[in-house]
Write a structure and sequence with these properties.
By secondary structure, the protein is mostly helical. It is built from 8 helices and 3 strands, in the order H-H-H-H-H-E-E-E-H-H-H. The protein has 2 domains: 61 residues, Helix Hairpins, CATH 1.10.287; 108 residues, minor pseudopilin epsh fold (3-Layer(bab) Sandwich), CATH 3.55.40.20. The protein binds manganese (II) ion (MN).
């Protein structure tokens, strides 16, 4: 059973002006499609065939093809799902309370997350994870994911920001901090809250 490129629940131009349509089109239709296709090639006909993406990341990241393309498949699937044209604002309920308790409150959270994204050298991701029931912020290189062992970043990711140049260069060029700031205008906090609840269940 092959992995499939997930459809977006919004149009390529829906996140403008924060993320431009051309970037979304190439990012989803070329980059994410490429990771998905190469992941399928890597697992087809092996003992990894039929395993969930979570199991592949947790148990088979010693294979560079699974690490890079499985990570790319999972990371982008999460990324699209936690953004929305109706996003922005701030979380409420249990997630807001956990940000207060575990991450020092909303302002500190935003600063710490933006710093993790800005200081990740080269290509990678910034994450909010649930680890042993608590929120943590971290970053990883390339398409590494917190579900992989030994990436210096652990737990179940509930929010991720792609800081590869392909994610922002057409619109923001070298201004990664501007892209990070814009991301906060499209975060779908309801979707993040659902992932938070699921990760703690
Ligand atoms: Mn990407």
């Amino acid at each position: 059973m092959a992995f499939e490129l997930p459809n977006l629940s919004y149009a390529y131009d829906a996140l403008e002006p924060h993320i431009d349509a051309r970037t979304m089109e190439i990012h989803h239709g070329k980059h994410h499609a490429g990771y998905t296709s190469k992941l399928n090639t890597a697992v087809e006909g092996t003992d990894m065939d039929g395993k969930s993406i979570e199991v592949l990341l947790a148990e088979h990241s010693d294979s560079s093809a699974v690490r890079n393309n499985g990570g790319g498949y999972y990371n982008h699937s999460l990324f699209w799902s936690i953004m929305s044209p109706n996003g922005g604002g701030s979380p409420t309920g249990d997630l807001a309370a956990a940000i207060d308790t575990d991450l020092g409150g909303w302002d500190t959270f935003k600063q710490t997350f933006a710093n993790a994204a800005a200081t990740r050298f080269g290509s990678g991701w910034a994450w909010v994870c649930v680890k042993e029931g608590k929120l943590e912020i971290c970053s990883s290189a390339n398409q590494d994911n917190p579900l992989m062992p030994g990436v210096g970043c652990g737990g179940t990711p509930i929010l991720g920001l792609d800081v590869w140049e392909h994610a922002y260069y057409l619109n923001y060029q070298n201004r990664r901090p501007d892209y990070i700031a814009a991301f906060f205008s499209v975060i779908d906090w309801d979707a993040v809250a659902q992932r938070y609840a699921a990760a703690r269940a």
